[in-house]
Amino acid sequence: MTISPDSPAQTATPAISYRTVDLRGQRLSLAGLRAAVPRARHQTMADAEQKVADIITAVRSRGFAALSDLARTFDGVEQEHPRVPAAALRAALENLDPAVRAALEESISRARRFADRQRPANIDVELGEGAVVSQNWVPVGRVGLYVPGGLAVYPSSVIMNVVPALAAGVASIALASPPQKDFGGLPHPTILAAAALLGIDEVYAIGGAQAIAAFAYGVPAEDPDAALDPVDVVTGPGNIFVATAKRLVKGVVGIDSEAGTTEIAILADGSARPSLVAADLISQAEHDPKAASVLITDSEDLAAAVRAELDVQAGSTKHAGRVREALSGPQSGVVLVDDLEQGIAACDAYAAEHLEIMTADAPAVAARIRNAGAIFVGDYSPVSLGDYCAGSNHVLPTSGTAAFSSGLNVTTFLRAIQVVNYSKPALERVSGHIVSLAGAEDLPAHGEAVTARFAGNG
């Protein structure tokens, strides 16, 4: 593997330092590929863990007083209680730009249609006469949904969190988003409007790891109406501190995934359009200076053309500084591969949050991918579509966790409960097997619990 810097372009603004990782001519193991693909070298979860643990301890021990102190420290706002008044939710919706409202309504409609079809069916399996085992899907009782703030405003994340929870049948839904100094210590009004549009009235101005802690453990109050009840599941994307908090409370509550700073990978060949590849890499880079934008290709010509497009397009975009920093970071770059086979292997090793396929016969290539949060097929399925109006969910696993976890969906909010219903004759038919297995495991009382049912008048 070779990693080389790029030659600076002769322009007034220095060229983006979009690095190259050259895997050509190498036969790397899965571990080797995972080590080779671009990854962030910035603060890791281990670095953040102690800070987050301290925040969780403060929220658990000092409740709303700790939340108030944290809002002052991190958000620069004074806060008596983080609950957003109902009047503020109504006002936000009433004052929402009609064009934005129409866009949110369309996004909600498409997300609902997709979510409604995701709920798995209950099943009953008859294993013999009088022997029935069932699996029933039951929603969790209460969920806490996190919507990030910071460099951008994410009403779309309200939709992505709330819609599948509603489709699952969750009865109690709470939502948290960071307080904003510019809006009197409340979350951004567009966030509030989206919540109101979906009928969510329990909204809190709490950000970061402290929001996750409050959801996981609850915050008691002398007045029961002022308390924040603990939840069963916490979902939603966020920065490294939010992702770390979710990891630390996992087991106390369920979580969707450790969704941290966004990332995109694009698998492209010589048939791809450089301008579109560059536009899509930039679209994710504008989220955050630590966002990852990775191109995987077997075409040096495409890589060179994309590099040139990045310089041109990044210079004209609104958040040029942020984009340039993200594209120049160690988490971004072009990965050169020998062929499509090695490209697919690199994609599976990277396990991208968002993976675009821009190759010949893109649907067939997409069908071969095993590790990705979401796959976007062809020129007309950009990640931006999935962010807003595809109907899919944009809360997806990052940092390689797509190799073992899924994006947010209806089943995140459901539990499968198994129900066993055997009659006396049905139990008697397998009683001998139970006694034999209980003896093999040296747990004879297990077998005796069965034979007792047939002793005497049992």
Strand and helix layout:
Blueprint: E1 2-4, E2 20-22, H1 30-36, H2 45-75, H3 86-94, H4 98-116, E3 123-128, E4 131-139, E5 142-146, H5 155-168, E6 172-177, H6 189-197, E7 203-205, H7 208-217, E8 233-235, H8 240-249, E9 254-255, E10 263-268, H9 274-285, E11 292-297, H10 300-316, H11 320-328, E12 333-336, H12 340-350, E13 352-358, H13 362-366, E14 372-377, H14 383-388, E15 414-422, H15 424-440, H16 444-451
Parallel strand pairs: 2-12, 5-6, 5-8, 6-7, 8-9, 10-11, 10-13, 11-12, 13-14
Antiparallel strand pairs: 1-2, 3-4, 4-15
Helix pairs in contact: 1-12, 2-7, 2-8, 3-6, 4-5, 5-6, 7-8, 9-10, 9-11, 15-16
Structural overview:
- The protein is of the alpha/beta class.
- 42% of the residues lie in helices and 17% in strands.
- It contains 16 helices and 15 strands.
- The protein has helices at 30-36, 45-75, 86-94, 98-116, 155-168, 189-197, 208-217, 240-249, 274-285, 300-316, 320-328, 340-350, 362-366, 383-388, 424-440, 444-451, and strands at residues 2-4, 20-22, 123-128, 131-139, 142-146, 172-177, 203-205, 233-235, 254-255, 263-268, 292-297, 333-336, 352-358, 372-377, 414-422.
- The protein has a 7-stranded mixed β-sheet, with helices on both faces.
- Strand 13, helix 13 (362-366) and strand 14 (372-377) form a beta-alpha-beta unit.
- Helix 5 runs parallel beside helix 6 (189-197) and helix 9 packs across helix 10 (300-316).
- The longest helix has 31 residues, at 45-75.
- The chain is globular.
- The N and C termini lie far apart (72 Å).
- The model is unreliable at 1-11 (pLDDT under 50).
